[in-house]
Structure formats: structure tokens, C-alpha cells
Amino acid sequence: xxxxxxxxxxxxxxxxxxxxxxxxxxxxxxxxxxxxxxxxxxxxxxxxxxxxxxxxxxxxxxxxxxxxxxxxxxxxxxxxxxxxxxxxxxxxxxxxxxxxxxxxxxxxxxxxxxxxxxxxxxxxxxxxxxxxxxxxxxxxxxxxxxxxxxxxxxxxxxxxxxxxxxxxxxxxxxxxxxxxxxxxxxxxxxx
Amino acid sequence: xxxxxxxxxxxxxxxxxxxxxxxxxxxxxxxxxxxxxxxxxxxxxxxxxxxxxxxxxxxxxxxxxxxxxxxxxxxxxxxxxxxxxxxxxxxxxxxxxxxxxxxxxxxxxxxxxxxxxxxxxxxxxxxxxxxxxxxxxxxxxxxxxxxxxxxxxxxxxxxxxxxxxxxxxxxxxxxxxxxxxxxxxxxxxxxxxxxxxxxxxxxxxxxxxxxxxxxxxxxxxxxxxxxxxxxxxxxxxxxxxxxxxxxxxxxxxxxxxxxxxxxxxxxxxxxxxxxxxxxxxxxxxxxxxxxxxxxxxxxxxxxxxxxxxxxxxxxxxxxxxxxxxxxxxxxxxxxxxxxxxxxxxxxxxxxxxxxxxxxxxxxxxxxxxxxxxxxxxxxxxxxxxxxxxxxxxxxxxxxxxxxxxxxxxxxxxxxxxxxxxxxxxxxxxxxxxxxxxxxxxxxxxxxxxxxxxxxxxxxxxx
Lengths: 191, 462
Hints:
- The complex is a heterodimer.
- By secondary structure, chain A is mainly α.
- Chain A has 2 domains: 10-93, RNA polymerase sigma factor, region 2, helix turn helix motif (Rna Polymerase Sigma Factor, Chain: A); 113-188, Arc Repressor Mutant, subunit A, CATH 1.10.10.10.
- Chain A has 8 helices and 2 strands.
- Chain A has helices at residues 10-18, 22-43, 47-64, 74-93, 127-135, 139-150, 155-162, 166-188; strands at residues 96-100, 116-120.
- The longest helix of chain A is centred in the last third of the chain and has 23 residues, at 166-188.
- By secondary structure, chain B is α+β, with helices and mostly antiparallel strands.
- Chain B has 2 domains: 60-231, no CATH class; 239-317 and 330-459, Porin.
- In chain B, strand 6 and strand 7 form a beta hairpin.
- Chain B starts with a strand and ends with a strand.
- Strand 2 of chain A pairs antiparallel with strand 1 of chain B, so a sheet runs across the interface.
């Protein structure tokens, strides 16, 4: 039986993962999986899909970890992979394809002040409630909202990522915000 | 009471970014199984090995059954030759020498004698092989001389007394030197093949002729296993087994039905048909007057969609909208620039099963009418995505389909025998999905259509 590797630092763990060391992979998974599940859950409509995306994402992490150059933190690199995986997973798990004749693109403004909420001091926002609300968004709304509002992507980036127009990205975001505001008011009584 | 203003984006960003969710503990085990699949691979190899073993065992059994049958035929030939020889050579000599005719019917004792005769035949082959170096005329003369000598010595020796009933053995031995080449060849077979049949029930045999004895099967208590195999082995029920290679294709169309109004508005009913290829390995045989066949086939299915339609992703999950009403959201990518998926292809590994009745017309032609079913396993589906200019953007996987499905249908086939082993067959079939292709309950997607296959069949036995 060979001598066990020293896995004291993150760099040790990464090196061992590159060598397909099962123990190191487990440590990496246990360290980051809860946070990555949080990322995936934002992009999926239910926890089952989120866990599938997490699974696929970690497969990619371990297969591509030798490409990690250290220019960003490991967490940032993994989050990026998870987001891509969640988007891919969303595309794959779409239940079926629909065919529809092209419709006119509507432009929506981005500086609408009506999305400002007034929170009272005692308003406690539970994390699980926010996940529930965001899961109620249609997939397209949720994708664009996550990428724009949480990850900080521009509409141009989103358009490239999802293969849609910037106009579509803007309109999806506006619809998402509108729907979120209503859901937050109804379900969390914040308005 | 102080109020705080917050943009809705920030409410979610501040709370969700960097948040964690608990795992249930099974995730790592599942992941580890995929990352380190050695055990799984070994398991696959184990099954593969078992499969090969079973195939080999059944092949061996099949081969042995054929060999036994060949051995029996050989044995019949041997026995007939021996009998003829005895009548022609031994009996007259016995009569000449006025010895009692005790060898017209075989007894347990002279069974041994026959075996020795056969051994002697083998010996004679060796003699003849040595003689090959001589001129044919010399061999002929020597053979005739030897025969004459044999007759004389046989007669002389037969007139002698032999308590063990081996009188005349040498005469028989000598006489085998002039038998036909065919007989010589047959006697080269292992002794056990010839002697085996003589040994069953030796005391019940003497009153029967050789042919009658050979026609009789041994009683079940003497060869219980052989008897059982004979009775229950399904291989014995099959006749004219064949293997074959087939290739062809199907012209399929798709029947779509849905209780989702928006969906049915656009796609309900039949979608246009498209030709999809298939290639397969067939195996079959005659069974109780019917023709049955199976095998394994790679088959593509699919249809042509009009590229003028825009590609939309339609969400099937029931949602609560902003007004609190539940509905299926119509469009998630309402204004997407991705336009149109066309030529969906569903790739299946199929196990076809068919049963039909064959009518023969002359020696060359036959016609078969039958029923068929296919057990299908979906190995993947792809669709070509076009942009607004109808240029191909990408080929995407098509998810959301059942892995296992079943078809039913019928076929007519026409066969032409190229020779006594090889047959060319043209088959026209109709297949329809018996089970829904889709995973989703709200949509039913079934394909049906006509297909044609050209196959080359090789008979395993003449």
C-alpha cells in the first residue's frame, strides 16, 4: 500500500485531484459542494435538477482541473463551471422543443425605479424563501436574472451565452423583475 | 421605525450570492462511482464473459448434436458395408467350407469380431498406403493375389475350430483389402463411433437386422441424459437455422397528440415523413411450421420538421404566475434568435422479433407473411438547429425521450435462393410505436411508417 499524500493545502488537494486521487477529490467535493449546490439551485427550477447539475459540474471540475491556472480563486473557477453546467443542463433537460413563428422583439428599459423595494428593519428574509421564489420564475427569466443581477453579466454577455439577442435579454430581465416583485410582495410581504 | 430602500436585484444578490445548501450525503458516493468506475467495468466484463461462455456452450452443444448425427450416419454406412461384405465374402466361404451358418445374424460374440474386422480394415489401409509407391498394375495384381490367398486361407482357417467364435476372422481381415475407397475412408473414423451402437442392449439385438437395429433408439433408462436432451432441447425443434445481414430503411412519420392547447396548435397531427436507415444482424429458423427470426439492429428514426418554424423552448413544468394562477408558461425564449430544429434523429439499438408463414414456389422462390415487433433502446437523439437564414447553427441532443420502447407491425417478404446455402431476401414492413416515445405525460409522440430491408441469409445446415 502506497504512502498517503499530504493534503494540507488547497494546492496539495488540486495536485492530487489532477492525479485522480479519490481522497483529494472527496475533500474538494466536501469543501465546495454546499456552495456550488447554492449556485446550481439558483439556475434550476427544482432541487433534483440542481443536484444533477452539481453532479455534472463536479465531473467537469475533476476532468478539467489540470486546466486551472490559478489566475482566479478555485471557488470562482468552479462557480463559473457550475454556471455553465447549469445552463447546459437547463438546455438539455428542457422537456421538449416547441416551434413557434418569430415574434416581434420588445425593448425594455433597465433603469426602472419601480423595482426598488422598501424593507422594514424587522423584515427578515429567509434564504429558503428566496430560493423558492426564484424557482418559480420561468426558466428563461431565471437564467437572465441570475446572470445579470447576481453574477454581474452584461446583456451582451448574456446574449452570447444563451444565444439570444440583447433585446431579448433585456426584456427577459424586465419581466423577471416584475414577476419577482409581485412574488416577493405576495409571499414575503415586502414591497 | 426605519425603512431601507433596496433594489430587487440586490435583495437576491446579497442573500443568494455565496449561499450554501446542505447535501443529503449520497452525492459523493454517486460521483465517486462515476469518477472511478473500475468495479463497474469489471462487472460489465464479467457479464460479457458469461455471455461468451453461454454462447460457446450452446454452440458446442449444437455442434455435438450434429456430430452425433454424422457419426450415426457413418455408422449406418459402416454397418451396411460390413453386412454387404459379409454376405458377399464371408457367407459363401462359410458355405463352401460347410461350416454352420452362425454369422448371418450377429450375436454378442461376433460384435467383437466386427470390431476387429474394422481394425483390420484400418490396418489394410496402411498396407495399401505402402503399396502406393508401386505401379497401379502391380498393386492390382498383388491385391487380387492377396484376395485369392485370403479366400483360401480364410476357407482353410474357417474350417478349423476356434472355441471363441473367432473362426474366419482372418478371412474377413484379408478380404477388407479389396473394399471400396469409400469404405476405407470411413473405417479411418475412431473405432468408438462404430462400436458404440453395437454395444447398446446387445442381448436384445440378435433377432434384428443391422438396419432395424440402427433404426431403433436406445431405451431411455440406458441413456437418460441423451433421452432428456432429445425430448426437451429446443434446438432439436428448429429446422433450417440461418444467420444473415440486413440493411434498409424506413419512411417514418410522427403522430403528435397533446392536451396542451398551445402545443397542439402548432404540432398536432402527423409530421412529415423522413427516410431513416437501419442495419442489422439476423438469426432465425423454422419452428413448428413457422419462420421465426430475431437479431440485433441499429436503427434510426425521425421526421422532417419545417425550418420556417422558430425554435422555442416550451416549459412543461406547471408554474404559479404573478397573479397566483397556475398555468404552463407559453414561452421562455419568446424572442430568441435560435430558429428551428430540423431533421430530428433518434438512434436505437433494436431487437426485432418476427414470426411468419412461408410459402415456397418452386425450388428458388419463397414468400413469407408475418408479424413483427421490435424492442427498442434509445441510445441518443439529435436535432439540427438552424438560424433565421436557415444556416446550420449546431446539432443538439434531444432530451426527454423514453429509453425503452416497443413497436408492432407486420411484414411481407420474398426470398430467392442463390444456391442451397445462400438466400437473398427482400422485406417490406410496417412498424408503429406501441409505446409513447416521450417521457412527458402531456404529450404523446409516436412514430409509424413503412420500411424495407434487403438481407442476405446463410443457411447453417444444408
